[in-house]
Amino acid sequence: MASLAAATFTGQSGEAYEFLAYDRDTEFKSAGAVYVVAIRYPVQDGYTYRNVYVGETRDLADSPLTHCRTACFERIGANSLFVRLEGNAARRQAIAKDLLGRYDPPCNGDQDGICEYPSTECPLVWPLGL
Known about the structure:
It is a single chain. This protein is of the alpha+beta class. It has two helices and five strands. Strands 1-2-5-3-4 form a five-stranded antiparallel sheet, covered by helices on one side. It starts with a strand and ends in a 28-residue tail after the last helix. The model is unreliable at 111-130 (pLDDT under 50).
């Protein structure tokens, strides 16, 4: 599986985190990871991304592909996934919290990266609000 791009996201703390981008339908092996769901869209000199969700998982093979916020992702056209492998659960949670402190992804309505009961409510950000 080839990545689409590499990106560095900086958390509220100022720490930089390296991620690789993949199509959202990519199948992954089981591994712990921090991930960012995004909309990939063309611009004049290539592609750019609009981040819509930050989360973490102990099993990338299962989540976020069967994520409880899938309705939000699909409603706004999310088609990409940035992944940073991280086996340590406490470190994954800390990275996700740090990124959430800096970014305001629309599908993180509760701002903690944790799913509650699935909902189809999600702000419209595509194509507006990029």
